[in-house]
Amino acid sequence: MVEIDYPGVYVEEVAFGVSTIAGVATSTAGFVGEAASGEHCAAVNVKSVADFERTFRGSGRGSELGVAVSQFFAGGGSEAWVAGVPKGTPLSEGLQRLDAVDTLNLLCLPGETEVRVWRAALEYAGRRRAFVLIDPPGADLDRTVALAESLAASGS
Predict the structure, then answer these.
(1) Measured between alpha carbons, how far is 39 from 83 in angstroms, rounded to an integer?
(2) CB-CB neighbours of 16 under 10 Å
């Protein structure tokens, strides 16, 4: 204990055996979605909405993929990897395009509504230690609850 020999208020810091928890990045997102120019064979790194629009011409802010990427950057996101798939291709096929990405914190398949695809996404995210963002299927509360219950049954 420190010896105090004058009046006043004092603060003594005492070290505890518990260390603080280090923060981890949550700003790198992977997006898989239908892109007008779905000929890209690998995930593309974009750092802004402008990067996205330059790379995925025709898949602008009006597409589900474009809206999701725009909202990510508007919400403070800093880096995204986008895997565009051609129209009619299951989004689950685009997941493998993200394998080459070293760090993936968030996974989003905007507009996807099929339970089997979401299960594949949850399994993929579990292997990558990523968090999945799931769009509810419209304003229908019963369908949203059914989707949540079905995905919860997967154990994730």
Answers:
(1) 10
(2) 6
